[in-house]
């Protein structure tokens, strides 16, 4: 698990394990966002176990599961709030990092234009160009 930097304070990665959390804290991460639903794969750790490890290491933890590209607006707002309030690096993770990339981009789409979000995602290895109209609409409504 090697975090990929998206912005100065937001990173994405594939699935992490509870035993990874201490090393992440030592690397300066202050919060974790888990975008993977529990039970998605038999070898996946439970969110509660990762949360316990995060709390023990002094990290904030948010479970905002996404099934495919489905995410609630409430979870988008919670991702926005956590990333805005964090005083250090935040790691979003899921099976591959793709859902975490999308969740963060949706959360930031009120503040950042679509071109910038798509470029940041591309730099992290993900293509979010099909989400341009959603990003544009959210930015127009709030930007």
Task: Note down, in words, how this protein is organized.
The chain has 143 residues and is of the alpha/beta class. The protein has a single domain, classed as Protein-Tyrosine Phosphatase, Chain A, CATH 3.90.190.10. 43% of the residues lie in helices and 15% in strands. It is built from six helices and five strands. It has helices at 21-26, 47-56, 73-85, 98-108, 114-123, 132-142; strands at residues 4-5, 10-13, 29-34, 60-63, 89-93. It has a five-stranded mixed sheet with strand order 1-2-5-3-4, with helices on both faces. A hairpin with a 4-residue loop joins strand 1 (4-5) and strand 2 (10-13). Helix 5 packs across helix 6 (132-142). The longest helix has 13 residues, at 73-85. The radius of gyration is 14 Å and the shape is globular. It starts with a strand and ends with a helix. 38% of the residues are buried. The mean pLDDT is 95.
């Amino acid at each position: 698990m090697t975090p990929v930097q998206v912005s100065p304070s937001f990173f994405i990665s594939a699935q992490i394990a509870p035993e990874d959390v201490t090393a992440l804290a030592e690397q300066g991460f202050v919060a974790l966002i888990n975008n993977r639903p529990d039970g998605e794969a038999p070898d996946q750790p439970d969110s509660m176990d990762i949360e316990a490890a995060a709390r023990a290491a002094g990290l904030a933890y948010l479970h905002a599961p996404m099934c495919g590209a489905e995410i609630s607006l409430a979870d988008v707002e919670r991702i926005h709030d956590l990333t805005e309030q964090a005083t250090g690096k935040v790691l979003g993770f899921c099976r591959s990092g793709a859902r975490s990339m999308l969740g963060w981009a949706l959360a930031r789409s009120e503040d950042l234009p679509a071109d910038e979000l798509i470029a940041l995602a591309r730099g992290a290895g993900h293509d979010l160009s099909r989400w341009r109209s959603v990003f544009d609409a959210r930015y127009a409504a709030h930007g």
